[in-house]
Specification:
globular; Pnp Oxidase, Chain A; single chain; alpha+beta; 7-stranded antiparallel beta sheet
Length: 174
C-alpha cells in the first residue's frame, strides 16, 4: 500500500485534474442543484446544465418554487457525477456557487439555443423543437458562478489500492 493510501478519510490527493473535469463537462449534462428552501432546509433536484466560460447555466420555469428561493438566497451548490455518462471512472464534482436569475431576452436568446443543442446533440430538428419548448413565458435562466470546487477521481484512489477496486471499474482485471 502506498503512503497516500494509508488514510482513506483524507481524499485530497484523489482530486480531479482540470483535463478530467473538462471531460466530465463534455460528457455529462446532468447535475444536482441544491438550494435553501423557504424554511431553510436544503433542497435538491436533478437538472440539466451547460458549462460555458467557467460558469454553469440552468433553466427553469418561473413557477418552480426554487426560483424565488434562489432569488432570496443566491447561495447554491451543484453536484455532478460521471455516473450515466461515457466517462467510465467514477468521478464527481461539487461547486459552491452564487446564482444570478436572468429573465432578460438577451440572456435567454443565447442560453436557450446553446442549452437545447447540448441536450439534443447531433439532432438539429429535435434541438430546435426543444428550444421552442423552452422559450416559454416565465422562463428563467440561472447563471451559477463557482466560488469553491471539490473534485474527486476514484481512479487515483483505486491505483493506491487495486484490491478494493470495483469489478465494473475500467482498470479492473477480470
Amino acid at each position: 500500500m502506498s503512503e497516500k493510501a494509508k488514510n482513506w478519510e483524507d481524499v485530497k490527493s484523489y482530486s480531479l485534474d482540470e483535463a478530467d473535469e473538462q471531460e466530465m463537462f463534455d460528457a455529462q449534462i446532468e447535475c444536482t442543484l441544491i438550494w435553501a428552501g423557504k424554511e431553510g432546509w436544503p433542497m435538491g433536484v436533478i437538472v440539466n446544465y451547460i458549462n460555458r466560460d467557467g460558469r454553469f447555466w440552468l433553466t427553469a420555469s418561473e413557477e418552480r418554487p426554487r426560483v424565488n428561493s434562489i432569488r432570496k438566497d443566491p447561495r447554491v451548490s451543484i453536484a455532478i457525477t460521471s455516473k450515466g455518462s461515457r466517462v467510465t471512472e467514477r468521478r464527481s464534482l461539487t461547486y459552491k456557487c452564487r446564482a444570478i436569475v436572468h429573465t432578460d431576452r438577451e440572456t435567454l436568446d443565447w442560453v436557450i439555443p446553446e442549452f437545447a443543442n447540448a441536450m439534443r446533440p447531433g439532432e438539429p430538428e429535435k434541438a430546435e423543437a426543444f428550444r421552442e419548448m423552452l422559450d416559454s413565458p416565465g422562463r428563467v435562466v440561472f447563471e451559477l458562478i463557482p466560488e469553491t470546487r471539490i473534485g474527486f477521481d476514484s481512479a487515483k484512489m483505486w491505483k493506491a489500492s487495486e484490491a478494493a477496486r470495483p469489478s465494473d471499474s475500467p482498470s479492473a482485471s477480470h
